[in-house]
Amino acid sequence: VQARAVLPWLTWWLVMGGTLVGAAWLCGGEPITPRVLGIATLVNSAGIALLEQLLGRVPGTNLLRDRQSWNDMIHGVLMSQVGRPLGTAGAAWLLAGASGLAGGPLPWPSQAPFAVQFALVLLIWSFADYWVHRAQHTFSFLWWFHALHHDTAQMHLLKSGRFHIVDPILTYPLKAGFLLLFAPPAEAVLWLGVWQVADGNLAHCNLDQRFRSAWHWVLPTVQNHYLHHAAERRLQDSNYSGEFPLWDVVFGTYHHPDRHPVARTGLEGDPIPRDLWGQLAYPFRALRASRAAPR
Ligand SMILES: [Zn+2]
Ligand SMILES: [Zn+2]
Known about the structure:
Layout: H1 2-6, H2 11-27, H3 34-54, H4 69-102, H5 114-138, H6 140-150, H7 167-180, H8 186-204, H9 222-228, H10 233-236, H11 246-250, H12 276-292
Helix pairs in contact: 2-3, 2-8, 3-8, 4-7, 5-6, 5-7, 5-8, 6-12
Bound molecules: zinc ion (ZN) (2 copies).
One zinc ion binds next to loops.
């Protein structure tokens, strides 16, 4: 009983710290490789899936009983294995054109300690991520592709991969492209990958994680992102940061989860079909419908 009371206050720190330390251990003093990133992803996801069963956060939520779990997994594979590589290739292509115009990358403190360079990568990425995500909530064309990620009546581990395959093809050229403008070391970008897996899984999962109220202003807490998945539009259009809430606070789109309770997650009116093909086709149908009946 006592462990059940104390553990939720430690879960974020233990999973985040454990993933980073575990990945560093796998590296064994060598630079990190995509293989280490892959192993860290699998171990982190399996660990969180197991912990969700032991320390659930929201009653009635369980990936084993969610009928969308198979679709979540298929979207996750399509997004990460097809959409994201294509989006990153698009970023590199854009960049080749841009650096031809600008005459090389922007300045980068390559002599600074690695921790400083990594923090800078996080800061630059989260800035681009914030504005691209905000644009996805602002322009209908982008929203139709992003809506699938918000079609989440339940929030659990698998929702962190529930993105339309086209979503990263639209967003990565901008997000990754902005980061690559600075030409940061590949090492720091791979560590960003490790951070994002752990951070994304923790933000979506149904693992009980508690924080003192003030921490929500600083950390990528599950409550901050749960609020972003609220069905209520006012809340949905806030807390855009995938990483630290810094940019939401700076640009005035932050809502503190303690002051804004979430009645239900998902989308008002449930516009997204339940079947995989319908989900993949949804943005294109919405686009066609909007052409037929312009607003
Ligand atoms: Zn969103
Ligand atoms: Zn999300």
